[in-house]
Amino acid sequence: MSHSSRKGEHLDLCATDDVAFKGKGTLFDEVELVHDSLPEMAVSEVDLSTRLVGKVLRAPMVIAAMTGGVDRAEAVNKDLASVAEEHGIAFGFGSMRPLLEDGDTTGYLVRDVAPNAVVFGNIGVVQARDASIEALRAMLGTAGCDALCVHLNPAQEVVQPEGDDDFRGGLDTLQRLAEELDVPVIAKETGCGLSRSVGERLVRAGIGTVDVSGAGGTSWVGVETLRARARTRSLGELFWDWGIPTAGSVAQLADLPLDVIATGGMRHGLDIARALALGATAGGMARPYLMAWNDGGRDAASAMADQIATEIRIALLLAGAKNAEELRAKPVILGERLLRWVPAGSSLTTRR
Questions:
Q1: Each residue's pLDDT tens digit, 278-307
Q2: What is the pTM of this model?
Q3: SS3 letters for 41-59?
Q4: CATH number assigned to the domain comprising residue 124
Q5: Which SS3 state, helix, strand or coil, does residue 132 take?
């Protein structure tokens, strides 16, 4: 199957709820912010600005990686990148493999509508391992990317008959890219979360930013199973819910010297505020924006971004925090299921 056909199927499936995890949630319902009845501030005083990959965002929000290399990606990415431009938030491409390997720019040229937005490129670690630095630089330059997400998706790959099954050299690849590329490198999972051990190895490799892309949102094993492209249906069903819940992954990485982007099943601004309270720098969504765009085009996606920012701002106000840094110092109540993911000695265990 061609890359464009595969991406077209992904867009169709990810616009539905059929690809959600079946029995595993993000665990953000296990995070409670403590209400402050005397916040002593106006809503307008809440400062949502944050710094990510050396750039300033007006709100800690990312329109997370979705698509590219297929005709429909042209309209989706143009509109969503322009929404990112309008709201001063970040936007991420889906895999840029077609651009890297074939020079196919379909869906990757958005700078005409988003000249100032923070734009993340995206390539798989296996493709990055086999590519030259010159080729990667050319790919990033063509699309005008401010950072490169290198996605780690072994669970998705190993259930595909056409998928990669050799993941050797991934860490060395990330270290090489961090040292030699001219833009920051973001280590990004694809629906299964990042563990404490992986976070520690990434820090040693010189990575400063990660996207946890945890379990609880879209199951990419599920996507491949519904495409009838799993090696066997039973294999796909068995590993459908594999992964670390998103809140659990953010908690796993707490106290490490990493900027953490929380994606994977984020439903609204309150979930992003909960992620910020756990130590994340920003939160991102993909499927909700795609579903909004399918329903009402760019205007609906823009309205969603505005609503999410409002929800984050209100959550901070009600917790008595003027910004994310203050929120991270406030008490937070964690449920027992989430506490099982919190590393021993984490600062999260002292904020109760």
A1: 999 999 999 899 999 999 999 999 999 999
A2: 0.93
A3: CCHHHCCCCEEECCEEECC
A4: 3.20.20.70
A5: coil
